[in-house]
Specification:
By secondary structure, this protein is mainly alpha-helical. The chain folds into two domains: 2-114, no CATH class; 151-193, no CATH class. Helices cover 62% and strands 0% of the residues. The longest helix is centred in the middle third of the chain and has 37 residues, at 79-115.
């Protein structure tokens, strides 16, 4: 009666759609060994059929391709080979699932980072919501890169134009000074002959 009950439970085993195939196969293998120890081990063909019947429906195309390949090659997969092959497929599928989980974790961390930005305090300007490397104020990592500084008539652009005018006026004063000095000095060519660019 114990062996009959164990065989019935072996045949009723099913792996959930996103279940762990490896632990599922470990359970089936252990039940098979228990039956073998009682002298009622299922045959290779029976255990092969139990294995295929216990898989989730998403593995049906893979099993069909596997069976078609083995029939074309005229080879017979043992239950152990079948478990090994399906375990490889399970691990392959899990790699894609893990990378998606990692992406989701990365996106969640990025969102948390955005939410946590309000707690940041800038050491450059003293305002909240950013750090010195991202600060647009003078002395910050993004100084003179603020949106309002880039267009026409921005603060820095006006300051630069004023500085250019001051530099040009200063240069003109120096030229005028040299012209006055050279007019008073003898032995030098007349200033009007100099190639002065203005």
């Amino acid at each position: 009666m114990v062996s009959v009950d164990l065989r019935r439970r072996l045949q009723q085993q099913h792996c959930a759609e996103r279940g762990d195939i490896q632990s599922h196969f470990d359970t089936l293998h252990l039940m098979r060994e228990d039956l073998a120890s009682m002298g009622h081990s299922p045959s290779e063909d029976d255990f092969y059929a139990i294995l295929i019947g216990s898989l989730p429906p998403s593995y049906d195309p893979y099993i069909s391709a596997l069976n078609a390949t083995s029939s074309v090659l005229r080879t017979f997969l043992s239950p152990d080979d079948l478990m090994h092959t399906i375990t490889d497929e399970y691990e392959h599928r899990n790699l894609g699932r893990l990378s998606k989980k990692e992406e989701n974790i990365a996106f969640a961390a990025e969102d948390e980072g955005r939410k946590g930005r309000s707690a940041l305090m800038c050491f450059n300007c003293g305002k909240k919501g950013h750090k010195k490397a991202d600060c647009w104020a003078e002395g910050g990592g993004k100084a003179r890169q603020a949106p309002w500084d880039k267009g026409k008539g921005g603060r820095d652009e006006k300051e630069d134009k004023a500085k250019e005018k001051e530099a040009a006026a200063s240069a003109n004063e120096h030229i005028a000074t040299w012209v006055a000095i050279s007019n008073t000095c003898s032995g030098y060519p007349h200033v009007s002959d100099w190639p002065v660019s203005r």
